[in-house]
């Protein structure tokens, strides 16, 4: 007997249904028709573009492999991206980088702390036959009460006055020649000291917090800075447009120079009554997203500080720590 072989081809039902359901459906650039579980057509972002290479520059300044990749990216991000021109985008020339900001490094903070402790220890007196004497805690309590304004807490201004009581303690070693910059450096280091033991993050120290900050046996932690899931050592630098940022005591401190008209910082009048942080888009244009793991607080307009994601910009254009009046 002879048998006739007849080939059979199996066509997936999904392919048939997709071609039938999507036959009269038109999806915009960067999208393609797909069939939902209910068997209905739906326009989704293209899963994968063809690999042909024909570079194109997007209106966002990004170069794409081809037109399909551009429209797919616009679909995935939800942003409006148009074709600026064929070919690669021109590299933007970086604007001149400014000088580094004035910062209090860990070594500056620890040096100031050591000098204050030595000064306080020198004033402690052992108990004698005719004198009660005073220990380290007694001496510290005396100064706390002298500089406290009556609220049982020391803020940065009061802490700075306490530091300035001793000439040796205030001479923090720094590369800054101008006295004005040295005063700012001392203020920055005072805030760094407050941050060490400020358990409730109110930028004020109770006596217990004050004592913990300056306790001789306490070893201050060496905090690092976070940026895009990476950590950086104290003194590390990064460039944000024409500004420079430095890692100091676990915080990114940046200059705040206007690079061009598009990223002009808000004025104090614009910030008045607005205690919210800036949007992600505004922040990206100015200093970029730093301090992801650092916690900021509200803007203090009275002291001419502008808050940008944990950064305080002073009236001199420098990004500084909180609670430092101009």
UniProtKB/TrEMBL annotation:
GO terms for cellular component: extracellular space. GO terms for biological process: cell differentiation; regulation of BMP signaling pathway. The keyword Cell division does not apply. It comes from the Eukaryota. Transmembrane segments: none annotated. Homodimer. Interacts with SCN10A. Interacts with DIP2A; DIP2A may act as a cell surface receptor for FSTL1. Interacts with BMP4. Interacts with CD14; this interaction promotes TL4-mediated signaling cascade. This is Follistatin-related protein 1. It comes from Sinocyclocheilus anshuiensis.
């Amino acid at each position: 007997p002879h048998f006739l072989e007849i080939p059979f081809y199996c066509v997936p039902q999904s392919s048939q249904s997709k071609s039938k359901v999507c036959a009269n459906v038109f999806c915009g650039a960067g999208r393609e028709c797909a069939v939902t579980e209910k068997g209905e057509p739906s326009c989704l972002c293209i899963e994968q573009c063809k690999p042909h290479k024909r570079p194109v520059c997007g209106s966002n300044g990004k170069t794409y492999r081809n037109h399909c990749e551009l429209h797919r990216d616009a679909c995935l991000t939800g942003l409006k991206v148009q074709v600026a021109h064929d070919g690669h985008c021109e590299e933007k020339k970086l604007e001149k980088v400014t000088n580094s900001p004035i910062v209090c490094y860990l070594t500056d903070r620890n040096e100031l702390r050591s000098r204050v402790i030595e000064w306080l220890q020198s004033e402690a007196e052992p108990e004698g036959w005719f004198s009660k004497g005073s220990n380290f805690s007694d001496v510290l309590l005396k100064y706390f009460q002298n500089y406290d304004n009556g609220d049982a807490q020391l803020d940065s201004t009061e802490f700075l006055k306490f530091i300035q009581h001793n000439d040796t303690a205030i001479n923090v070693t720094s590369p800054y020649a101008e006295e004005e910059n040295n005063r700012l450096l001392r203020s920055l280091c005072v805030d760094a000291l407050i941050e060490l033991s400020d358990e409730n993050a109110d930028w004020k120290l109770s006596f217990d917090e004050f004592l913990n900050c300056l306790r001789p046996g306490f070893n201050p932690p060496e905090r690092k800075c976070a940026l895009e899931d990476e950590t950086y050592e104290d003194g590390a630098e990064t460039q944000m447009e024409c500004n420079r940022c430095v890692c100091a005591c676990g915080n990114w401190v940046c200059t705040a120079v206007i690079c061009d008209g598009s990223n002009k910082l808000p004025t104090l009048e614009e910030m008045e009554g607005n205690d919210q942080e800036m949007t992600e888009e505004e922040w990206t244009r100015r200093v970029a997203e730093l301090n992801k793991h650092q916690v900021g607080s509200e803007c203090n307009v009275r002291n001419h500080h502008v808050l940008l994601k944990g950064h305080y910009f002073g009236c001199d254009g420098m990004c500084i720590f909180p609670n430092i009046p101009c």
